[in-house]
Amino acid sequence: MAITIYDVAEEANVSMATVSRVVNGNPNVKPETRKKVLAVIERLGYRPNAVARGLASKKTTTIGVIVPDASKTFYAELSRGIADIATMYEYNIILSNSDKRQDREVELLEDHLGKQVDGIIFMSDSITPQLREEMRRANVPIVLAGTLDAEKEFPTVNMEYEEAAYEATKKLIENGHSNLAFVSGPFTRDINRLCKKVGFEKAHEEAGFTVNPEFILETDNTYDDAYNHWCEMLERDDAPTAILVSNDELAVGILNAIRDNKFSVPDDFEIICFEHSLLARAVRPQLTSVVIPLYDLGAVSMRLLTKLMNKEETEEDKVTLPYRFELRASTKEKNPLA
Amino acid sequence: MAITIYDVAEEANVSMATVSRVVNGNPNVKPETRKKVLAVIERLGYRPNAVARGLASKKTTTIGVIVPDASKTFYAELSRGIADIATMYEYNIILSNSDKRQDREVELLEDHLGKQVDGIIFMSDSITPQLREEMRRANVPIVLAGTLDAEKEFPTVNMEYEEAAYEATKKLIENGHSNLAFVSGPFTRDINRLCKKVGFEKAHEEAGFTVNPEFILETDNTYDDAYNHWCEMLERDDAPTAILVSNDELAVGILNAIRDNKFSVPDDFEIICFEHSLLARAVRPQLTSVVIPLYDLGAVSMRLLTKLMNKEETEEDKVTLPYRFELRASTKEKNPLA
DNA sequence: ATGAAAGCGCTAACAA
DNA sequence: TTGTTAGCGCTTTCAT
To answer: HTH lacI-type domain spans which residues (chains A, B) (predicted)?
Structure first.
């Protein structure tokens, strides 16, 4: 049996209330009493039971983080932002992977809520009606990170994907291309279908170009799928010469398909992708990118959640973070992006 | 106030014990009672409070995972292995980053134990005496994953790093090299200093070669540091022609340093690295690697932990997983590794 | 500044 | 098969 607050109280000849006060830094304790209690705690190796504390106080200082797949650099980086701010505010994190399955997402929300987390940060491809229902039932704040909430119902931290896609496409067009492709991850991800793709299309519209639907490629988000898709593409005479890509991994797949087939980037094809992880810098040529502020997305989400959990006044619970372009060698030198 | 077991009991005209039985799948409940209770649970939206349950049962079905940095692919992948098996056994995971700081590691251990986790999976560069002390005090099982325990005191899941390094080095030597380098992450990581480096040295010894200490490079484990180190190296007339590298990120740094300086891999330099993440496949030439079974390391650790938590008999709590070589283009074609 | 006592929501004997 | 009851280890009034 582990040491309890009661053992400490007895050993120090005080009541458990006093020990509780000492442990919680309550100022209403005579300094010498505090000292005495602290000494006993030290000697006995007393370690407060957070579960009991959680039951009594109705706060667990634990938050839930639900993520499609924490082993993907995208979410790993984002989660690290969450974790650092959580540490700063002394929260623990229960981290779970949903693998993008809606049933799992619902289950996990339910599960985390059952564990009495004080709040949740949720990442998903799409907030379905069922998810929405489930989230409404929650009695703790939930923040969406890197996730589109079409109804703008829940607190959300995001960046302007559509604008970035528009801007990137426009630059590609200004570089002289009229035949462009958009290679995306699954369109079940709202951000792909409703933001990036739309930005891509808007730039076309503005330039008086029409988007060729055959050049909107939906992949399964893997290197290999992108690689294969583009190898096929290279057999066409009318293959697009400029490519907007949804993320680094896909972009590298395309890049390698191009290079393995003896074409050149950026001479034959120019590429701009989203993300800019190490992968984008490690390949040659390095990839010009829309840098997604992943870490900050996480950090800001967590900061927002702390405010919500403390019921602090928040001016705005829909936050949009700035992005920037990182100019590298997958686009041509005098690129106006500079 | 949320619905409690008591509310359900009242509403269903049974005792809370019966509700508890239903919730916990205890077979000693008449089917129709069960049905009735289940209906009430459904209607009221009752969700068992895991904190209260934890206090009463002294089990939280939560484990702690302490990792240097979950945003690094190495640990992200390993953690995913842990997470999947944890899900399978219905455990939640509290995940924390130590950033390799010993004080944080001790703090986190203490913190997780306070949260009453049922077990811990711990990853660290080195198990110091203080850590050892702390771990001994724990009243729940702790499994080390991808972490060297020189004293062989704690349950551990690992692979044969030394043997892999030896074998890789030997192959490089068989490929005709006599001037080799070992580029490592920090030697504060026991596995680098006590396993990989030793394997590298043994192969030299066996071949009658002596290791040039100047060619044992300790980096800070970043792409950039490896890149810079190797750029300097390239200015020497006696630069090593074969390189064993501690992980993918460093290897890609070296690869790019070589290629950016117009040398060729594998013609001028051959490279074998540890890990083989996407990065190793994405670069050109792709990297010949010792594949570290990261996911399995995590999965097996978690499986071992479940056994320990259930006090099942375990034949052996020091597990060594097999590795394999992945032959790619950073070594020459007729490489005997095949 | 300190103590007494009533929960927090559940599990787990023990009874019935 | 079901109910009663005593905790689990703490926080939090309310007294003193």
So the answer is: 3-57
Which residues are CB-contacts of B32 (< 8 A; sequence separation ≥ 6)? none
Q: Which residue has the tokens 């967590």?
A: A302
The token duo for B306 is 């479940």
**Cα(A318)–Cα(A216) distance, rounded to whole angstroms?**
30
Q: How far apart are CA A112 and CA A138, in angstroms?
A: 10
Residues of B in contact with A70 (CB under 8 A): 70, 76, 79-80, 83
CB B182 within 8 A of CB B215: yes
Burial of A54 (0-12, 13-18, 19+ CB in 10 A): buried
Pairing type for strands A288-291 and A318-321 reads unpaired
Neighbours of B188 (CB within 10 A): 12
Question: Is residue B80 classed exposed, middle or buried when 0-12, 13-18 and 19+ CB atoms within 10 A define those classes?
Answer: buried
- According to DSSP, residue B30 is labeled -
Interfacial A residues in 188-227 facing B (CB < 8 Å): 223
Distance CA A253, CA A217 (A): 13
Helix or strand or coil: residue B263?
A: coil
Instruction: Report CA dihedral (A297, A65, A140, A130) to the nearest 10 degrees.
Output: 100
pTM of the model: 0.95
**B67 bridge partner residues:** B97
Q: Name the maximum alpha-carbon separation found in chain B.
A: 88
Per-residue pLDDT tens digits of chain A, which is 338 residues long: 689 999 999 999 999 999 999 999 999 899 999 999 999 999 999 999 999 999 999 999 999 999 999 999 999 999 999 999 999 999 999 999 999 999 999 999 999 999 999 999 999 999 999 999 999 999 999 999 999 999 999 999 999 999 999 999 999 999 999 999 999 999 999 999 999 999 999 999 999 999 999 999 999 999 999 999 999 999 999 999 999 999 999 999 999 999 999 999 999 999 999 999 999 999 999 999 999 999 999 999 999 999 999 998 888 899 999 999 999 999 997 544 44
- Please name the residues in contact with A39: beta carbons below 8 A apart, sequence gap of 6 or more: A12
In three-state secondary structure terms, B98 is: coil
Tell me, yes or no, if A88 comes closer than 8 A to chain B by beta carbon. no
Residues 6+ apart with CB under 8 A from A7: A44, A46
Nearest nucleotide over every DNA/RNA strand to the A56 CA, judged by C1': C8
H helices of A193-245, where? 197-207, 223-233
- Which nucleotide across the nucleic acid strands is nearest to B34, CA versus C1'? D1
Q: How many residues does chain B have?
A: 338
CB-neighbour burial class of residue A108 (10 A; exposed 0-12, middle 13-18, buried 19+): buried
The pair of structure tokens assigned to B8 is 């359900």
Q: Residue type at A88?
A: M
